Every structure is written in C-alpha cells, then in structure tokens.
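Q: May I have one protein plus its fold?
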Amino acid sequence: MVSVIACNLTTRLAISLIFLGLVPAIAAQGPLTIDFPSAVRMAVEHNPSLAASSEQIQAARAQQRVAKGSLLPRLDLDMEASRTNAPLGAFASKLSQQRITAADFSPALLNSPDDLDNVRTAVRVSWPVWQGGALWAGKRQAASALEAVSQNYSMSQQKLTLDVLTAYTAVHEAKAQLKASQEALQAARQHAEISRAQRDQGMTVDSDVMTAEVHRLNAEVQLHRSENAVADALDQLRVLLNMELDQPLTLGAVPQIPPLSDELQAIQQRALASRPDLLALQANLKAQRAGVRVKQAAFYPSLQLMAQREWNDSRLALENDNTLVAGVVHLNLFAGGTDKAAVDGARAQVSRMQYQLEAAQRAYRAEVARAWRGREEARSRATAQTEAERQAAEALRIMELRYKAGLERTVDLLQAQARLDAARAQRIHTDFERILAEARLRIAAGQLSLEDIL
C-alpha cells in the first residue's frame, strides 16, 4: 500500500516539484496547521509556472492596449538642429526661416553658401483613419489572445488544485494506513500471547508460537513502513507548498468532492462548452482568423490624415511658422507575391488550428468517458471493500472463538487476521481513491475549482 501512495504522488507532482525547486522555500515559523483551501492558495502563490502564466496574461493585456491605441490619433513633437553649407540644404533652411532676399539668388552665393544654422520644431497629429481593416482585426486578434492565455491560466489552476488534492489526501491515507498498522500489530501481539498461553496449557506446540511470533514481527515491519509512508507523504506536500521539510505540519479535514450527478453525455457536452483549455484553443482559432484579416489588409487601400505645424529659426524659437495638412491614400499594386503568400500562410495556420481543435474535442470526450468509468469503478470498489472488511472482521471474530476453544489451528487464525489487515488497507485506499476519481472527472469536465471542493 505504501508503494501505491508513492506512485500516485510521483506521477502527478514531478513537474511541479522541478519548478518549485527554482523558488526559495517558505522559512519555517513553527508548527503550521493548514486546511485544504489554504494549501491550494499557498501552492498557487508560490508556483513558478502559474506565475509565468500570470505574466503572460499581463503581456496579452498590454498587447490589447497597443491594438486599441493604434486606432487613435497620434501626437508627435520633433526637434532638429542642423548646420550645413550644402547648397540645397542651406537654401531650403533659409527659405523655411523666411529670410530669403534677392541677394540670395546670386549664383556665387547659391553655389557656395556660408554655414547656416537651423532649429526645426514641429508638432504633428496623425490618424490612421483606415488601414485596410488591419487595425480593427488586430484589436480582435489581441482580445482573442488575451482570452486564450486567461483560459490556459484557469486550467493550470485546476491542475495545480488536483496536484494539491492528491498530495493532501495522500497524507490522510498514509495516516489512516498507519493507524490500521498499529491495530494490526496490537492484534498480532495478542495472538502471540494467546498462542504462548495455549502452548503452556498443552493445547498447541512450539511451531504455532513461532508462527505467531513471525506474524508479529511482520506486523512491526509493516508499522515502520507505514510510519515512513506518512513522513514521505508529508515531505511531498511540503515541497508542493514550498515549505521547509523540517517544518511541523498538521492538516485539516479530508476534502470532499461533490459528485457530478449528470449522465456521461451531459458531462461531455459540459466539458466541450466550458473546459478552459478547450476554450483557449477556440480563442486561439479566433486569433488566427483575425490574423488572416490582418494579412488581407495589404490588398485594400489605406487612408491616413496628418496635420503639422513647424517653426524654423537659427535658434530655438517658435517663430517663422508654417502649417501642413495632408491626407495620404496608399494602395499596394504589386509586392512580388509576398502579400498573397502571407495570407496563404495565415490561412494554413487557421486550418491547422481547426484540426487541432477537432482532435482536442474528441480527446476530451474520451478523457471524460475514462474519468467517468474510473469514478464508477472507484465507487463500486469502495462499496465492495467496505463489505469485504466487514466480513473479514466477522470471520476473524468467529475464528478467534474457535481457536480459543481449540478447534482451529494457529496458522488459520493468523491467515484470518492477515485477510482482515489486507481488507482494511484496501478499503482505506479505495475510500481515498474514490475522492480522487471524482476530482479527475471534474477536471476532465473543466470544473475543479476550489469552490467545488468542500
């Protein structure tokens, strides 16, 4: 049973443990009592992969603001200082300063001007009125990208919740197994004492006493294994919560998962409608479709309006002003086929995402079905193991009465005790496995939030 607990933890927590090794552990501050909701919050707060996902959300929000800002007018201030004796530059600067005279048209002065200083100050307002639809499509693309990363973050939270639930219940199971091992050892000691007493009365032989002693020794070994399993499970949970391994930790009650009462088909439909990672794929598909529209904008005319006022002088001053108002219409007539290739590539990405979405929908339906069957099997096994433990206990009670009356052999009594010990250990495991099976069904349906756990 110890190996079962270890296997359940290792698979689910391996990646989380690797990531958490990059984050400083919480300093020990004495004994800590923590319930399941607090454990989930601690894991979320100190999980690097979730922190990275949160930064992705911030980056997507910033990109969305960029897309929105691209639709608005832009205001720029330009300041340029120059000194030149190039004929054209010197004449243009002097003309901009509104200081041209008849003498400036002398060929000698035009061909060999003196150095001329010019400080140009300009304020410009520009507005991309229409860019072929690229800006509006970019806005939709950014909104869909934000939705995708937000949904992925939600699914990551649910997976981390399942990891914490697995580790948290593993501690409870290990402690329950430890209690069962203590009871088994106590029973083994009693049987050893009874066997010795019956030998002294001539009712049994030395080999029966030896068999009872071997059973007691095996029970002691199992007790040590159970103690180690508790320590291992606590260490796994501490690592997941980013705690120091030597910090005393006490857990609250065993969390309970309210069952999904709908039929399988209804849960599958709910998963297709609300599972976060599936919604993220759908949002990415929307983003890809908007990306196609961005590329297609190259085939449409664009219109940009601009208004500018500038000042030119030999020093920094708001003098000699002039104003420019312009509208620019641009139409791409031919770009060597690059624009069409870009559109074709974007459409191929859309097709790829559609295939991925269809494959994911089929896979998630199958995942829900597997989780549903696992949940039903766990329920059945829990019921069967409860009854098996009850009958094993009753069989042992009858066997003990017959043994004390000298009607049963010691080996038969010990075998009955072993059957009860095994049935109790299996019943404990199936009780906790039933909780995890319900959680796996919920996460397959995309409905394992902290609020869903009691």
Remarks:
- The CA atoms of residues 11 and 380 lie 24 Å apart.
